Amino acid sequence: MTAAAATKKGRQWALTTQLRVGFAVALFMVLGVSGVAWRVALDYRDDIKLAYQEHLLTTVQLAEAESALWQLRYGFPQFMIGSEAEQQRILTEQDTWYAIIEKRLAEYEQATTDPQERAQLDRLLTAYHRYKAARPKFFELWMAGEKDAAIAWRARTTTPYGAETVQAFAAQIALQRTHIQREQARTEREVQLVLGLVAAITLVQFTILAIAFVSSRRLLRRIRALRTHALAVVHKQLGETIDAATSGNEVMALEESIQLMSGRLLAHNALLRQFNEALEAKVAERTEALAMALAAATESDRMKSEFMNAVTHELRTPLNGVIGFAELLKDEVAGPLNPQQAEFVADIHASGLRLLKLVEGILDMSRLDAGGEAGKAEPVDIAALLQERAAAHRSAAEARGITLEVDAAAGHARLDPQALRRILDALLDNAIKFNRDTGTIRIGAHRVQGRLEIVITDTGIGIAPADLPKLFQPLVQLDGALARQYGGIGLGLALAQRLAQRLGGTIEVKSEVGKGSTFTLRLPMEEETT
After folding, report:
1. Sheet holding 412-415, edge to edge
2. How do beta strands 403-408 and 440-448 pair?
């Protein structure tokens, strides 16, 4: 930040000062508006008072006209008992009274607009003009010396007409007073309404101003807290310091902090994109290398399988010849054998069979690794198949005093019988090989939730827990000493597990050293109705 920019920002008022100035201006504006409103309301009240005074003036004018009427009526007895000079004065003054009455009535007629008052005024004017028209004849009769006729005329006309006029004046004044009272009540209501409205508006303005002030203070506290946090983040994460005193107000300091963080974040994003691009290139390179390695491994595995097939086939041909000729010698087709020769021929025949079994195991494993076709599922009597395989291994078991027990109640199922036979042969060979002399092998089968479970339990030497994960690996012996003692190269169980997986099942084992092992074969099965 340059010094000029810092100086310019330093001139910025803090938000607190801006809020105070703003609220002071708003307060003065509210007071000004309220003062104007109150002034208008008071002027309106004064105008109404002036109108009320004008109504009172019209009432005074009516009263003055009524007083002049009474002066006219009082002139009759004064005229009748007065001297000639007094009579002449009365005749002269009555014109003055006429002028006053007519002037006040004309002014009242111009001032009033109320329909009721104008109707009553019409009746008043009618009575007055009739009274005025009857008066001159009384004076003419009296001046002519016909006093009785004048008195009679007065009794018949001027007296009742005058009384009618007086009543009309009284009714007019009463109506005017009623109108004034009604206008006064309405005026007071309007003035109270206007003043109340002005007071309510003023109160609302002050309330809004107070709410805005409180809300702005809360907002300001949050902005300050956010600014403090942003300055701390900038200092801690970016290693830069922003001076709040020279950063203008709170919002400008917060804005500068956000700009710094945004700029640094954009720079980090650019670096991250470059790193991602480099990583993607490395991943693509490694993926290509792995694909090539996988292709090479697949080709190597294929070549290995082909080699194993070729080797095993080449081994089986001469081996079958050796076994065949050994059987011929054993049966003494070529002539009798002495005991030593018979023993040698028997060893040759047994070793050939063992070697043939080993070659067939290698060939089967090679076929499975190459993805050979699965056998065809057929209806199988599970109990009969177990009895068959137990009978096939009974002679080997009895040679060591091992008892084979079969307990099968699984019924019939559709399975690949050849694969199942090979699995059972591998498991039974393993159970007989590693069992103790005079031990026991139990074979059981049952159905559990639509699956076939075949359990083979022996009382052999058992397997250590650390060796269980290596049990089904091909060409792996758990113990070299045991391999030399019991023979074999570790293909039987691996082949059995591969066949079980080929059938959609698995083989699980539980074992305890010195007590024996339990192998459980679980296969999906479709129940076959017998």
Report:
1. 378-381, 412-415, 526-527
2. parallel
- Residues contacting residue 424 through CB under 8 Å, at least 6 positions apart: 385, 386, 389, 454, 456
Q: In what order do the strands lie in the sheet with 451-458?
A: 403-408, 440-448, 451-458, 516-524, 506-512
The predicted pLDDT at position 449 comes to 82
The pTM for the full model equals 0.42
C-alpha R_g of the chain: 67
359, 320 Cβ separation under 8 angstroms: no
Q: How far is CA 371 from CA 190, 311, 375, in A?
A: 106, 18, 12
Per-residue pLDDT tens over the stretch 444-474: 888 888 788 899 999 988 888 888 877 777 7
CA distance 101 to 105: 6
Say how far apart CA 121 and CA 222 lie, in whole Å: 76
In whole angstroms, how far apart are CA 193 and each of 51, 170, 186, 188, 197? 18, 34, 10, 8, 6
More confident residue, 413 or 510: 510
Q: Report d(CA 30, CA 17) in Å as an integer.
A: 20
Instruction: Kindly report the length of the chain.
Output: 530
Task: Please give the pLDDT value at position 242.
Answer: 57
Reading the block at residue 520, the tokens are 């459980």
In this predicted model, which residue has the larger pLDDT, 27 or 12? 27
Q: Minimal CA–CA distance to 377: which of 422, 417, 410, 423?
A: 417
Find, among 396, 452, 393, 398, the residue nearest to 425 by Cα.
393
Report which secondary-structure segment, H or E, holds 521. strand 516-524
CA atoms of 362 and 431, how far apart (whole Å): 20
Type of residue numbered 352: G
